[in-house]
Every structure is written in structure tokens, then in C-alpha cells.
Amino acid sequence: MAKEAKPKPQDPDAALVARLKRGDESAFMELVERYHASMVRVARTFVASDAVAQEVAQEAWLGVLTGIDRFEGRSSLKTWIFRILVNRARTRGAREARSVPFTSLEREEGETVDPERFLSDGAWGSPPRPWEGQPEERLLASETRDVIRRAIDALPLAQRRVIDLRDVEGLSSDEVVELLDLTEVNQRVLLHRARAKVRQALEDYLGGAR
Amino acid sequence: MIRRRGPLTCIELVELVTDYFEGALSRRDRRRFKRHIAGCDGCTAYVEQMRVTMRLLGHLREDSLPPVARDALLHAFRDWKAATG
Question: Fewer CB within 10 Å, N- or C-terminus of chain B?
Fold first, then answer.
């Protein structure tokens, strides 16, 4: 090699990359622990069943293993793994004829907050009640997580992909735009709609018991 | 969707929250946004709830992996390693 590939120094996974290149099992399993569940969920938005989503995620891991030697750190390891995943899921979804065009289908228009909650001049008639009084344990409790999960699962697929990658997995806006072939504007619209619906689900759940 | 002039209304503001977080508002709209929430409890609560929502979404990552999936991948790894030497 004439030139040395420069891994981005800020990639928190740089050490794992090196270990994985040496065939280190614990490095592989650490990544699996970290990303597999999210990968299955993202795959599930491209394919027709949970079983196929599992398969696709497993295939993606094999792709990671066979490709890691060529990984040069131009993107973060996480983004690289999700790119492999999305590519496989997309191919598989197309074969199943379930491929959903990202931007056209499921285009929703309109308000993300029930217009009934506003007065005719556009001011709140029924404003949200602050959650400041909610104890942190309640916010982090497993029932609350279930509420959030169910809200995500009920979202249109394109919104689910974006919120999973951005807010659950923590990828950057640039990364998600590239991964999903979206425009920045479109990504923000999908993200906003998704967040607004999850917030509403939380409000319905938390608000009721005060 | 939003009017160009005058102060933002609440029904307009709630649609701009993600653009605000993402730094995608024009300087002018950002100012209008901030000016509005400074004087509006309802929108302050709404924006705060969107922040909490994002934070809680980030916690979902900690959901653990089913042992079945874990084992399958461990085996896949060992097979791969055996095959590649």
C-alpha cells in the first residue's frame, strides 16, 4: 500500500475495526450486540416479514465480515454497516416486489398536531401539559418504551426508517440522507412527522395518568 | 405553509420544530421562532416534549438482543472464520 488510509480519528469504533480485521470474535459480537436489533428493524421496513428481516440482517453481517478488509474508514463503521444492511434489504425487498419508493409513496400532507387543539387565530386552545413533573423512572420505564415502540411500528415505512436511523441509532442527517437516497428537506419532513407522532403517543400515555 | 410576515402562530410553530432543531430555519424564521416560544407556555411545552421524545428514542438502543439471534450470529462468525482460515 502506497498511501495509508486515514481512519477518521473521531470514529469511536476505530479500535473495533482493527480487532475485527484480525478476526477477533469478541469484537464482532460487540458490534452485533450494538447494532443487530436496529438493523433488523430497519430491514423490516424493506421486506415483508420479521423472518426475512432477520435473514437480511444476518446476510449483512456476513457482508461486514467479508468486506472489513476493504473498510478504509471514510465513513464511520456504523454508517458502513448500515449501508451494507440497507443495500441488501433494498435488493431483497425489490425481489419481493415490496420495494417502497422512498419519496413518492406514503407521502402525507397536513398538520402533525390535531388542528382541533388550536383556536381560530392559530393559538393553542388545548396546549400540551408540561412533562416536567414526570419522574425520570417513569419516562424510562419499560411500559413507556413499549409505547414508543408501538408508535414507531405504526409509522409509515419511510418515516420509520428515518426515525430509527436518526433518533434511535443516532446517525447524522448527512449519513441518513446518503443511506436512504433522500433529499435533506425530505428527510426533515419524514423525521418531523415521525417525531410528532411519537410525541403524541407519549402525551396520550403520560398525560392520562396525571 | 407559514406566513412570511408578522409573528408566528402556535399552529405554525409546531410544524417548524424539527427544522429548528436541525438548524434549517432561515435566520429570520429562527428569530421569529425564538421570539414566539419566549412568550408562549404551550409552545415551550411542545418544544420541550419533542426534545424529551428524541432523548427517549435514543434510549431504545439499549434494548437487548434476543439470545437466539446472538447465537445464530456467533455460529455464523465461527463458520466464516473456519472457512477463511
Answer: C
